[in-house]
Design a protein that fits this description.
This protein has a single domain, classed as Vaccinia Virus protein VP39 (Rossmann fold, 3-Layer(aba) Sandwich), CATH 3.40.50.150. Helix content is 31%, strand content 21%. The protein has seven helices and eight strands, in the order E-H-H-E-E-H-E-E-H-E-H-H-H-E-E. It has an eight-stranded mixed sheet, sandwiched between helices. Helix 4 links the parallel strand 5 and strand 6.
């Protein structure tokens, strides 16, 4: 298939049968009859898209250069979306290289023109050269990874100096709004609807707060540029390789 690259590596995340899941499942989530679930995914996609636009000069249809003071990566630089699925956030068709183990998701991303290039690869051995990328997007990944610190170190290596990481993780604390919703959702989908994926909490093994996200990023050599939460459901961070 045009735009497809192959690489080695099959270990990815602690998600039950992730490679077998429907590739564009996040599109389905954003159209869920559950209004909270659909809002959660639609708003997450919208905010990721806005951050990519804010910190880059990526070419895409009808792009307009804004006159503000945000330092941006050059339009010619590589932008990588890790564990991208079908890159549901990229509805404007920005030029993105996606890496995932889920072949169905990569195919859907290429077909829908959300991905320019697709790489079959794992998150523990990222198949990109050191300093090759100007921006990396890692949305809803670290909660699944046994070695998320090693994952951050790999992203740091992949970025060129001054490159940007756009990171999102669930706001998973006892005072968040995400946690009770997620627990109820997993119980219903797993034990009422009988979906094994949700019986194992969708493979979530790590818990994050705004404080420990900052700590982990700074510990791996990143400088925080921006950090916020979306109504205490999702933590967003933009960090720069110093």
């Amino acid at each position: 298939m045009k735009g497809f690259l192959n690489t080695e590596g099959l270990w990815f995340m602690q998600v039950p049968d992730y490679g077998k899941l429907k590739g564009d499942m996040h599109d389905d989530f954003s159209r869920s009859a559950n209004p909270v679930r659909s809002w959660f995914h639609r708003s997450r996609f919208r905010l990721v898209r806005k951050l990519v636009e804010k910190y880059s000069e990526i070419d895409y249809p009808n792009f307009k250069v804004r006159e503000d003071n945000y330092p941006r990566i050059n339009a010619r630089e590589v932008v990588v979306d890790l564990a991208c699925g079908s890159a549901s956030w990229n509805e404007n068709g920005m030029k993105i290289t996606g890496i995932d183990i889920n072949l169905s998701g990569l195919c859907a991303g290429l077909e829908k023109k959300r991905l320019t290039h697709a790489v079959i690869g794992s998150m523990d051995r990222l198949p990109m050269k050191e300093g090759c990328a100007g921006m990396v997007i890692a949305a809803e990944i670290m909660e699944h990874l046994p070695d998320f610190k090693g994952f951050l170190a790999s992203i740091h290596s992949m970025l060129r100096k001054g490159g940007r990481l756009i990171l999102t993780v669930p706001y998973d604390t006892n005072l968040s709004l995400w946690k009770p919703f997620f627990k109820v959702h997993c119980f219903f989908q797993g034990y009422v609807m009988g979906k094994e994926y949700f019986k194992k909490e969708a493979g979530h093994i790590n818990r994050f707060s705004p404080q420990n996200v900052r700590k982990h990023l700074e510990g791996e050599g990143f400088r925080i540029i921006e950090q916020f939460s979306n109504r205490r459901f999702t933590i967003f961070a933009v960090a720069e390789k110093a």
